[in-house]
Protein: Xanthine dehydrogenase subunit XdhA
Organism: Paratractidigestivibacter faecalis
Amino acid sequence: MEKLKEVGRPIKRVDAADKVTGRAKFTDDLCPKPCLEAKILHSTIGNGRVVSMDTSEALKVPGVVAVFTCFDVPDIVYPVGGHPWYADRDASHRDIADRKLLDDRVRIYGDNIGVVVAEDTVACDRALKLIKVEYEEWPVVYDPKESLALGAAEGGAEHPVQDRKPDNLVAHTLAVTSDDKLAALGYSSVDDAINDPAYHHVSLHMESREQSQVHIETCTSYCYMENNKIVCVSSTQIPHVVRRVIGQALGIPWGDVRVIKPYIGGGFGTKQDVHYEPLNAWVCKMVGGRCVRMEISREELFWDTSGRQPKSFDVEASWDDDMNLHARKICAYSNTGGYGHHGHALVLNSVNSFRWLYHTQEKAVRCEAYTAYTNGPHTGAMRAYGVPEGNWAAECLMGDIAYDMGWDGVEFRLKNVYTDQFVDEFTPGGVIAAHTCAIPECVEKGKAYIEWDKKKREYANETGPIRHGVGVSFFVYKTAVAPFALETATAAVTLNQDGTIQLQMGATEIGQGADTVFSQMAAEAIGVRTEDVHIVSFQDTDVTPYDTGAYASRQTYVSGTAVKKAGETLRRKILDYARFVYPNAQGELTLEDGVVLDALGHKVVDLATLGLDSYYNMDHACQLHAQETINVHTNAIAGGCTFADVTVDMPLGKVTVNKIINVQDSGRLINPKLVEQQIHGGMAQGIGYGLFEELQVDPKTGRVLNPTLLDYKIPTMMDLPDLAADFVEKPDPTGPYGNKAVGETPAISPAAAIRDAILDATGCKFYVEPMTPQRLFEGFKEAGLI
């Protein structure tokens, strides 16, 4: 592997000192106080229509400035999913436009039907309680299959969730092995291949429930008007998208909106949606441009932002006696709730990852997916974007087969896992491909850490109420969203007077360390130390280069390509200027560690001297600057595995994770320390998803039953073991420095690995995640183990 100077250094985060000392300014820190406060009036029914609203008493509350209802806002629907906009010729790629600022059509419990603006939050709260609402209430449907069945009636559902979709179907897709390939195998369908009596066969049903991101900082923004523009300061992953959506929602030119993103206290996908910024901007405009702050509560975050979609999977497979998968099929149903948000893309990721992960020996496959509108809480992006759910389905299947056949689960998986020859036959242009694959090496490291063979022997014949087991799960993840969606980014670099570099990105730091790796990549491309790169750690859409934002593990891969290109351009400009100033320097000039060298390696000039000259040269003063925009049309498959060692107390329904390791194949690592940080955080979320976290919804009313941190359980430091992280570096030829996805991948496989370890310990198979104590207890009791 080529030796690089700055890329690969395990340096500290460039924002570390500001964050640990409290100097870092987040959205609410910057908000001018006092300011007006705005709070939302939420519906108290899960399906129906607002007939009337009486705000007279609310307006009498001292301090109340205005009350706006769903009957006051513009009749404009707009999209809120955080993806790029598309030109008219590609309009089919646009996010679904099905939201209004406020709406008289209630689709979910807690829907936004009004807003109070007041001098303080106390006045807001008092006024909200005095608003009288009359509803026309309709039955709630929460189950996606039931919703689709209602929509299949003649003329569609009586009360469709979205009027433009009377069938309640967001989308349906199917990918299936071609008839020609099936005919060559002697089959007329994938079902024929699965049910071939020459092979073993299994049919399973799995479910995954809604998970909330639970980031520390809730969704917060404040808006004011300046120079005839609406300025929105927001805690968002996607500032340029927020600017566009505010313009769309208010029906004003996008250039009349300015969005600023300061430091952000976590997002994990929630803030890849545009939640309250358009409403805040409209309210600001309605009160004459005064500053209005809108900060939602933790409870609102649970029920009225977008968590991980709940899904169900029906899976079948056939295989032979030599551990070869023969055929598989999956049919998935996804519940998007009352609004589209990210719509069908999430379950597509689920079934695609199911297909990609195990592919080598498979002869036939069928992947089908439905996304339904329901009256459940709206859902959207969460870390790994649908893949943990698909991984759950794939690994429950592989774990069951290995257990029932008496095979080693690692060997069975390795026999069928994708290789570096994998190219997805269903993706246009073969863009989804594994140019490199280090899964076997990852597995070797994971097995050694968990002591797989030794523990398998030690735990084999345990009896009694407390037992131990080891489990494994593999995973696969694409990098970025090409070829399914636009991938573009811009980076700007400038030589300062003192020879340091100014770096400005449209890509966003949301806690994952993006600013640090961008600084390292810029330093590598230019030929300076990372310590001499100053990155602007906030985005301002009036001056910041365009980038679609933080999602899909795209930024180091896509935005990093723009950084590298801009850095290389600036490097050439610096050397050209040095040649102009020092025409007698020998041979080709190079730039290393901030020093211009001649062909013999002798110092010509340092950047501090050259930078000062470039600004103040009497005859040729110039600011050496480069800005580059790129479109990325490639993709790269990342992968890896999780190994877990658990103790299962069956009477208590309690699982203790003793040891767990995640081993990543993410290409070249830009900063190994940051990768380790990412892996630890992702593993914690994956453990929570497997054992604790479930947003519980009353199917009769659509109401979220546990919208507090008292009742929504996440793992704390007391619930987590020491989290081990390791990696195998094989540079990917498509990445700017051989890198590929790492930000979301660690969250994918821990849940399935723990499930596999529970199976190893007890012989009990669980198909619903999270595997809560109640579900575990019921499963052990049904199996006669307690």
Q: What stands out?
A: The radius of gyration is 27 Å. Residues 238 and 549 are 4 Å apart (CA to CA).
